[in-house]
Amino acid sequence: MRRDLSSDDPRILTLTYTSSATTLMSVTQLVELIEQIRPKNERLGLTGLLLYSGGNVIQTLEGTSYAVDAVFDTIRADARHGDVRVVDRRLVDDRSFASWSMGFRNVSAREIADLQDFNEFARQSVGHDLVTHAAPAFELLETFRLNTA
């Protein structure tokens, strides 16, 4: 799904993907993982947000094409992720999560159910025709970005 994006382009690459955890992670395990990820992201100039709910992951990565692609290649090869699907990949002028080396939220099923526009996406198991559900996925990311800022 990678497109040739010029390294001379001053814009930021934003990549949003979904995946299913191969084994459920506890909140403690998730927090430890995020604490490991943040220093590397800071070194690479990556920002973003990771949402986890019942084994489902949606994450946005932002940064240079090189850094985003390198981290995403690592994620795709990570045995903890299954059914990794790109929802969106594009160049943008500004970051959506500029102040977060990696924002994180463990989202409850109730919180997802309360987002009416997100219900259809939530009912779909991760990986089923996500392109048609990209807008609700971004709305979810935006909702949590605003509520946890």
From TrEMBL:
Q: Which Gene3D superfamilies match?
A: 3.30.70.100
- What InterPro entries does the entry give? Acylphosphatase-like_dom_sf (IPR036046), BLUF_domain (IPR007024)
Q: Which residues form a coiled coil?
A: none
Top-level taxon of origin: Bacteria
Occurrences of domain BLUF (ranges): 12-103
Q: What is this protein called?
A: BLUF domain-containing protein
Origin species, per record, is Nocardioides pinisoli
